[in-house]
Amino acid sequence: MLSRAAAIVLRQYYLMRGNLSRLLSIVVWVTIDIVLWGFITRYLNTVSSSGFNFVPALLGAVLLWDFFSRVMHGVTMAFLEDVWSRNFLNLFASPLSLSEYLTGLVLTAIATSVIGLIVMLILATTIFGLCFFAIGLMIIPFLFTLFLFGIALGVVGCTIVLRLGPASEWFVWPIPALISPFAGVFYPISTLPPWMQRLSYILPPSYVFEGMRAILLGTAVSESRLFCGVGLAVLYILLAGWLFKRTYQRAVRTGLIVRYSAESIS
Question: Could you tell me which residue, 1 or 205, shows the higher pLDDT?
Answer without folding.
Answer: 205
